[in-house]
């Protein structure tokens, strides 16, 4: 049994409403889709999402460069394929786009393996849960704080018990104080039935992130995400040590 084919496709997916961050406006997402085929005719699909075409094209090219590494390998040897692909990419660095390329191929390999054995992937990976909690994201497509409040209301009414709010939807000239004030308004609005998280989008210095975190400690956030530049691991550790609220990072 072998992988016989690796195809890469770039799909441009327009948003119904542009995503607006603190730095850029994003009208589209780009999905880099990998399709693997085996000698028995099974197909595995993996994809990664980026928000600029200037990321999509080089990422697709990196994955294309892995074709000769992947084709011919045994699709049931998922960890071995990961090691081979990772080794082929290591000169490009252990993070960033090279890891995206490795990850997209890895997802497709595991999907192909699950198709071969005829089981859902979560069972192949040893999962025991058939239901998982989910949360929507808000604070990137609104045009005013009042509109964001309406969006949060709609989330609560639709049955979600958690929502993550992006800091770009809460920023004003008062800095961390304004963010804390607006987040408190949202929490009072949804009450105890909906938990909030704050995605800080790498925005603050460690001192300002700690200051903000302490102002909202009583809101019982399920986490404080990317409080500072995700590359500043010492700073993230300092923020986490200073707060009771869970701190998470590493998405980027």
Brief overview, please?
With 252 residues, the chain is an alpha/beta fold. The chain contains 9 helices and 8 strands.
Your description of this structure?
This protein has 252 residues and is an alpha/beta fold. It has nine helices and eight strands. The protein has helices at residues 53-64, 67-70, 78-89, 97-117, 121-124, 145-157, 176-190, 206-215, 233-242, and strands at residues 3-20, 25-38, 43-50, 137-138, 162-166, 195-199, 224-225, 247-248. The strands form two sheets. A five-stranded parallel β-sheet has the order 4-5-6-7-8, covered by helices on one side. Strands 1-2-3 form a three-stranded antiparallel β-sheet. Helix 8 runs parallel beside helix 9 (233-242). The relative contact order is 0.10. The model has no long low-confidence stretch (mean pLDDT 93).
Q: What's the arrangement of secondary structure elements?
A:
Elements: E1 3-20, E2 25-38, E3 43-50, H1 53-64, H2 67-70, H3 78-89, H4 97-117, H5 121-124, E4 137-138, H6 145-157, E5 162-166, H7 176-190, E6 195-199, H8 206-215, E7 224-225, H9 233-242, E8 247-248
Parallel strand pairs: 4-5, 5-6, 6-7, 7-8
Antiparallel strand pairs: 1-2, 2-3
Report the structural category: alpha/beta
Q: Nearest-angstrom radius of gyration?
A: 21 Å
Strand content: 15-25%
The end-to-end span amounts to: 35 Å
- State mean pLDDT (0 to 100 scale): 93
Principal-axes geometry comes out as elongated
Q: Summarize the biggest pleated sheet.
A: 5 strands, parallel
Number of strands: 8
Count every helix, treating DSSP H or I runs of 4 or more residues as helices. Answer: 9
Q: Provide the succession of SSEs.
A: EEEHHHHHEHEHEHEHE
The residue ranges in which pLDDT falls below 50 over 5 or more consecutive positions are none
Helix content: 40-55%
Strand order of the largest sheet: 4-5-6-7-8
